[in-house]
Hints:
Blueprint (H helix, E strand, L loop, with lengths): L15 H8 L40 H4 L3 H4 L3 H4 L20 E5 L5 H9 L2 E7 L2 H10 L3 E4 L7 H7 L9 E4 L22 H11 L3 E7 L13 H9 L3 E9 L10 E9 L39 H16 L31 E4 L2 E3 L3 H7 L12 H10 L3 H15 L1
Parallel strand pairs: 1-2, 1-4, 2-3, 4-5
Antiparallel strand pairs: 5-7, 6-7, 8-9
Helix pairs in contact: 5-13
Amino acid sequence: xxxxxxxxxxxxxxxxxxxxxxxxxxxxxxxxxxxxxxxxxxxxxxxxxxxxxxxxxxxxxxxxxxxxxxxxxxxxxxxxxxxxxxxxxxxxxxxxxxxxxxxxxxxxxxxxxxxxxxxxxxxxxxxxxxxxxxxxxxxxxxxxxxxxxxxxxxxxxxxxxxxxxxxxxxxxxxxxxxxxxxxxxxxxxxxxxxxxxxxxxxxxxxxxxxxxxxxxxxxxxxxxxxxxxxxxxxxxxxxxxxxxxxxxxxxxxxxxxxxxxxxxxxxxxxxxxxxxxxxxxxxxxxxxxxxxxxxxxxxxxxxxxxxxxxxxxxxxxxxxxxxxxxxxxxxxxxxxxxxxxxxxxxxxxxxxxxxxxxxxxxxxxxxxxxxxxxxxxxxxxxxxxxxxxxxxxxxxxxxxxxxxxxxxxxxxxxxxx
Length: 417
């Protein structure tokens, strides 16, 4: 088998895909002559510099090390995380903004999509969302505008007049608009996207006529129907197909270097006058190469006892499991397989954490920490989240995984430029 070792820095790789990406970095690597502890501050935490503060994860994992360690002590061992945190891709982005494609991020939340697109080399003009906590987080992590506004009261004309004072052209619009309608005293079909925030997304596209758009949504949108038995996706595409060549993709974030089996619908549209027909983005990883959740977990000794389930909760899980088996039903609590990506982290994770639990033994089961949840969504460790613990978890669960967005951004750049 071919040795996958960088001749410059001596780094060894398990997968050829990681090795090839390392060799093709814009910023060449140099020989590593320093002890890795030289990069630590006196407090023992990594120093935050311009070269590492907002970067997507280094996913050149060494899977073999894990199997040599004692199971109970090795979950999230720090040695496994040293190469797993966030490394330099900002070097790719140190070009003049005038050469970049400009992006407007609607329904931006705390900024997962914006972060990934920025890391890919796109220029984010602004992010807009109605939730103040999410926008506070957004503004703490990005130098461009984060606008707290209800899009039903914030038309594109207002954004252009009051916020786009430099009159920058919008090349790409992104966002994940809710496509279920808003009920108006029972007079509207709540399942019809024409009664929903989706139409605000359409208004922005019609106004700015960007070269491209990326719309993200849940997989269920493909099967939903309104009261008239029309498919929701057909109604949505009837608006997009007028002026855009579109492709509907069903993608797993885990195929794009995210340690989470998060499946989403991504609709990509390219303006028809550009004569480009988009196709589904190519997977970055094969199923066997997907990043296992064990690579991002914290060491067991660093987990506060408050994250562990109480005896009462453990007993409740046991009883529910027995009842489900007796009734031949599915069981709610999900235990992570450490050798595979995480289950999807939803916004409701704050309630009990049963969507993804770490199980050391029958009596030692815990929820994921906020730092681990950020990592599962491929946010940098340094990403600041505003609000209560509940607010922060909801922001994480609602976000587009940064690394997933990064690869979508690279795809769009490639086909437009």
